[in-house]
Amino acid sequence: xxxKRSLKQLGMAIAALCVSAGASADMAGAKLAIVYDAGGKFDxxxxxxxxEGVTRFTKETGVKVFEAQANYDTQAExxxxxxxxxxxxxxxxxxxxxxxxxxxxxxxxxxVHFVIIDGNAQGKNVNSVLFKEQEGxxxxxxxxxxxxxxxxxxxxxxxxxxxxRAFACGYAQGAKAIVPKIQIMQNMxxxxxxxxxxxxxxxxxxxxxxxRGSDVVFAVAxxxxxxxxxxxxxxxxxAIGVDSNQNYLYPGTMLSxxxxxxxxxxxxxxxxxxxxxxxxxxxxxxxxxxxVDWALDKYNRSVxxxxxxxxxxxxxxxxVSGKIKVVDYRAAGSCPQ
Length: 337
What we know:
Strand 3 (90-94), helix 4 and strand 4 (113-117) form a beta-alpha-beta unit. This protein starts with a helix and ends in a 5-residue tail after the last helix. The strands form 2 sheets. The chain has a 6-stranded parallel sheet with strand order 2-1-3-4-5-11, with helices on both faces. A 6-stranded mixed sheet has the order 7-6-8-9-10-12, with helices on both faces. The protein contains 11 helices and 12 strands. The chain is of the alpha/beta class.
């Protein structure tokens, strides 16, 4: 009776803390869990890509994965602790904002395995999956510079942090490799987690950039980026999506998407856990590892010329081979001029 009561209390606590629309599994019986960040499972970007990895895993194995959402850091810690108390096999945390909560809870529950995607948390029971965003961003920078008719392109970032500046820096390096004197505007939505969920602000920033001459915008802003993509459609400009393949949102407007294979990282972590495998430490995912890339499909085929495709693929090959080394803003502390 006490066990049933505690299970019910746990479920109530998680229900109160998490808003996970369409959760694929009840807590009871689940040994694997995932905690999405403030953008939400259906953000059409980072979280949604992770959710696709969960869906693929469950479809292939039939194994349930409990899904939850943390809207801010304090809530993330509460959710993670509630899940860890159930002695789950694996808890996956999505987004850098959960880094500190994961590190604290992992230390408290050394027998529970944690995977944090896009964050670097310390712990013998933690695997941190990081991406080489600068490499994929370089590719879409090449495409942007070649597609631009005004020789002015732009970037709308979400929260002003080194991670987002790494996207912007890679984008600039790729563009300048094509047009050394290209003009690149850069604006951030904000400095708090709210910056990921303000599509109106994202649209306003993109509009201002277009008014100043930009004809291609790279939106790296979670839910806020949706506003920038829509504004590009309204203004007849080109846009570049991020994380998941967003080309389908506005066919003919989307030049490409810088895909970050969060789905693969999530899927692989679940598969390993299901096979009782776990490797702590840091895992880096770049072009060579299949962690990032650009997207070319039927939705953007009409705006990607054979010349653009050829040049992007050549750059991709040079990065994989090591001929081109894209500077990581986070390591360098600045972006090449």
